[in-house]
Amino acid sequence: AGAKEDSFNVLDLAEYTKNRPWWRKIFAPSSGSSAEKYNVATQLVIGGITGWCTGFIFQKVGKLAATAVGGGFFLLQIANHTGYIKVDWKLVERDVNKAKQQLKFHSSGNKMSPEVKSRVDEVIIFLKKNVILTGGFAGGFMLGMAS
């Protein structure tokens, strides 16, 4: 019986993307800031769309969280007033004062750990390199929060 062999062409994806400029932007972007890869309008659109989506989600989650916290506090107050639970207000006051003292202690030193400082420095460098993208994101975020 004559077995027919199928022949397949092998496609080298790296070569394929090098020959397609718009594919190269997606699959093999150059190292550096996004300002080097995209023009100003593209950066504003990308930043604006991602900012709007983030702001919209934050708004919805924020409303849900505020409702849950407010509702929980309301239920606790009703339970306390009707006698189902008793709140030890002296203990609450003591814990709040302890938390205030810890906050004062940590804020008075004003020293960040090296790990946190390096992360903050990375974020600042990114924001400086991508000013247009960041501006578009901030504008979109505000619009997302407002809608």
TrEMBL record:
Subcellular location: Mitochondrion outer membrane; Nucleus
Example of a GO biological process term: autophagy of mitochondrion
Domain of life: Eukaryota
Keyword Transmembrane: yes
Membrane topology reported for the UniProt record: Multi-pass membrane protein
Main localisation: mitochondrion
Key words of the record: Membrane, Mitochondrion, Mitochondrion outer membrane, Nucleus, Phosphoprotein, Transcription, Transcription regulation, Transmembrane, Transmembrane helix
GO cellular component: mitochondrial outer membrane; nucleus
Role of this protein: Binds directly and specifically 1,2-Diacyl-sn-glycero-3-phospho-(1'-myo-inositol-3',4',5'-bisphosphate) (PIP3) leading to the recruitment of PIP3 to mitochondria and may play a role in the regulation of the platelet activation via AKT/GSK3B/cGMP signaling pathways. May act as transcription factor that regulates SREBP1 (isoform SREBP-1C) expression in order to modulate triglyceride (TG) homeostasis in hepatocytes.
Family stated for the protein in its record: Belongs to the FUN14 family.
Name under which the protein is recorded: FUN14 domain-containing protein 2
Source lineage: Eukaryota, Metazoa, Chordata, Craniata, Vertebrata
Name of the encoding gene: Fundc2
